Amino acid sequence: MSERIEQRAPGSEGEEDQIVPSPSPVPEPPERKARSSRRGESVFRFLASGSGVLVVAAVALIGLFLLIQAVPSLMANNANFFTSPEFSTGDENNLSFGIRDLFLVTVFSSVFALVLAMPVALGVALFLTNYAPRQLSRPFAYVVDLLAAVPSIIYGLWGILVLAPAIEPIARWLNTDLGWIFLFRTGNLPVLSGTIFTGGVVLAVMILPIITAVSREVFAQTPRFQIEAAKALGATRWEVIRMATLPYGRSGYIAGSMLGLGRALGETIAVLIVIRASTSPMTFSLFDGGYTFASLIASAASEFSQPLPTGAYISAGLVLFVLTFVVNALARVIAGGKVNG
Amino acid sequence: MTTATGTDLDRPASEPPTRQIALGRRIKDHVATVLVSLAFLIAVVPLVWVLVTVIARGLPAILSADWWGYSLSGVLPEEYEGGVYHAIYGTLIQAFIATVIAVPVGILAAIYLVEYGRGPLARAVSFMVDILAGVPSIVAALFVFAAFISILGAPQSAFMVSLALVLLMLPVVIRNTEEMLRLVPDRLRESAYALGIPKWKTILRIVLPTALSGTVTGVMLAIARIMGETAPVLVLVGYARAINYDPFEGNMASLPLLMYSELSNPEAAGQYRIWGAALTLIIIIMIFQVGASLISRFSAIPK
Fold first, then answer.
1. Which pLDDT band, with edges at 50, 70 and 90, does B11 fall under?
2. Whole-number mean pLDDT of chain B?
3. What's the domain count of chain B?
4. Which residue ranges run through the membrane (chain A) (predicted)?
5. What proportion of chain B, given as a percentage, has pLDDT over 90?
6. Sign of torsion over alpha carbons B157, B161, B164, B170
7. Whole-Å CA distances, A66 to A287, A314, B200
């Protein structure tokens, strides 16, 4: 690197006054090279800030365009948008759609996935940072990251064709022996596979690598002196985790879980394939079927032709966008700068 | 310390005054070790399970002679004929167009964040990158549908898919590039300034090349991530059983879309093609993943 700088130095176009990165209003010698490089500087600066602004604009435009497309349909809606469980857009002149069940199924499946994934992710992150031998820690972390590389459609196929039959006995046991808990009541499906329960397990697998990656990163930043202080007091390995790693990394772990929740809320194709549709409303059981926001939109995607019915789905998309926006913003606030990405 | 709770480094140099750690604490420590190791095993199970399933069920398809060189044009649902090269083409071209758009914008935005960004705008950009990273793919697809197809009247095409993929790819590229740019030692920048090289040339000729390998790694990981996206192709392009080379017009297959449409095929050949396409997709993604890690291994930033 330094050789290249030396070679460039003698004939380089920069003049003395360009040493300061942001030139102060010192009078410039009227030299062409300096002027052209100053123009280069401002063009480049403009391009870079423009790209930054583009990102902000993209998020704003997503919200704006979804809103523009959703409003006419919301005006034409005959049902209460927030409390109606039905979503019928077949008759363009009599739209009646509400997001109650979409919201419930989305939240039930995502929160269930979170409940399953959070303890495992915590364990994996601690294993990778505090237990795994140093040489194996990176390959092990890579293996967990590979979980995130598998496309969601493959998780969906595996979930319904392989996993669902395998965990059906567990579902049956929960339903028979713990059916008095409302979560494990028989739901609105005649079968026990392809339910929110199945979907939640698949989602848990899918969000595990995100939670793990964020937590691992934060746990690894635990100040060395805190760990050493704990050890000096004679702490066991678990006590070091309790006294140093967990207090330091808690916010990162929660932020990672929020990111995982955001991913689960918006997961589309795996949920569409795994969770069966149901004709009757949600009964607050994990053995219900139905659509999430994302899976409903995807299921209707081939019929997006008439503006008003399409707008109904776009309004569902808008709610999903707001939901994930809030969850991700919260994650960022909680992380408080410890997590980047 | 007779219990095997630590490595050599953890062991005190002289014998501790009390030789035994209290039983309760030892039990807790062991239970924690077991649980934590168990958690890792639990995490590995689904990965192995998924991969074994896909390989076992997909292998017959991808080993057939026609798989890599033919499309499904004219193949009946129940026939074990044809291949998926039309879908492979679709997956690659859609990812390629998205990359061509997302990489320059993403790298420039990262440069803005690291080299120029100060004040409220930079904070807003950084915040929005995080938000964009969390935008579900179906929402990105709906946005492209609302803005370009509904309002501007563009037809459904592979290019629309690429536009949605750009939104999904941007945050990954920006965050990775940003991280790499921050790793470039400041003394490199300062040396360049000392030699009178203007800031923008320093960035283009010195900072970026130094961070190049990490940036390329990030881009390849981003590509690997978007190639498996199914929601955008469901919303934004129709499925075609034959090859279509034109990304700006007409229906085009891609591996996820082919898998999804074969799901409604009740014949056994449908399953055969689904798992074959799944394995093909995983192989392509793995090529990018492994490529990314090779690049990052062989060219790290000098400290």
1. low
2. 89
3. 2
4. 43-68, 102-128, 140-167, 187-214, 252-275, 312-335
5. 67
6. negative
7. 32, 6, 38
Chains A, B: CB pairs < 8 Å: 321
B111 inside 8 A of chain A by CB: yes
Q: Which of residues 130-189 of B touch A (CB under 8 A)?
A: 130-143, 145-147, 150-151, 167, 170-171, 174-175, 178-179, 188
Lowest mean pLDDT segment, chosen from A80-89, B2-11, B227-236:
B2-11
Asked if A73 reaches chain B (Cβ–Cβ under 8 Å), the answer is no
**Do B140 and B176 share a domain, yes or no?**
yes
Half-sphere exposure of B224 (CA within 13 A, CB side): 24
| Residues of chain B contacting A304 with CB distance shorter than 8 Å | 145, 235
Statement to judge: residues B245 and B96 lie in one domain? yes
pLDDT of residue A18: 44
- Pairwise CA distance, residues B109 & B126, whole Å: 9
| Section A24-47 average pLDDT | 71
Tell me the chain A residues in contact with residue B40 when contact means C-beta distances shorter than 8 Å: 123-124, 127-128, 132, 140, 144
Whether residue B167 is found in the same domain as residue B238: yes
Q: Do B40 and A127 touch (CB under 8 A)?
A: yes
- At residue A115 the predicted structure's pLDDT band, cuts being 50, 70 and 90, is very high
Residues 6+ apart with CB under 8 A from A166: none
**Which of A64, A219, A236 is the mutation pick for testing B, counting most B CBs within 10 A?**
A236
Q: Are residues B29 and B104 in the same domain?
A: no
For A236-282, how does the pLDDT look when each residue is reduced to its tens digit (9 = 90+)? 999 999 999 999 999 999 999 999 999 999 999 999 999 998 888 88
| Domain contains B194 | yes
Indicate the average pLDDT of chain A. 86
Residues B206, B265, single domain; the answer is yes
Place of tokens 């069920």: B57
Burial class (CB in 10 A: 0-12, 13-18, 19+), B300: exposed
Phi-psi region of A16 (alpha: psi -120 to 50; beta: other; left: phi over 0): alpha
Question: Which pLDDT belongs to residue A154?
Answer: 96
User: Is B256 close to A269, i.e. CB distance below 8 A?
Assistant: yes
* pLDDT above 60: residue B231: yes
Contact A40 B200 (CB under 8 A): yes
Residues B191 and B281 in one domain: yes
How close is the nearest chain A Cα to the Cα of B66, in Å? 23
Say how far apart CA B255 and CA B87 lie, in whole Å: 5
Q: Are residues B97 and B45 in the same domain?
A: no
Domain membership flag for residue B123 = yes
* Residue B160 belongs to some domain of the structure: yes
Name the residue with tokens 């934060």.
A218
Topology given in CATH for the domain delimited by A87-335: MetI-like fold (1.10.3720)
Q: Quick check: is B244 in a domain? A: yes
For A124, the closest of B39, B117, B179 (CB atoms) is B39
**Are both B30 and B105 inside the same structural domain?**
no
User: A52 and B109: CB-CB below 8 Å?
Assistant: yes
Residue A340 has pLDDT above 60, yes or no: no
Q: Which of the two residues, A34 and A322, has the higher pLDDT score?
A: A322
Q: Does A39 touch chain B (CB under 8 A)?
A: no
Q: Which residues constitute the domain of residue B163? A: 85-298
Residue of A nearest to B102 (CA): A51
Tell me the CATH number at B120.
1.10.3720.10
Per-residue tokens: A328: 């991700």
- The residue extents of the domains of chain A are 87-335
Which amino acid type is present at position B76?
L
Partnered with residue A87 across adjacent β-strands are: A97
Q: Among candidates B260, B276, B288, which has minimal Cα distance to B95?
A: B288
* Among A15, A236, A293, beta carbon nearest to B25: A236
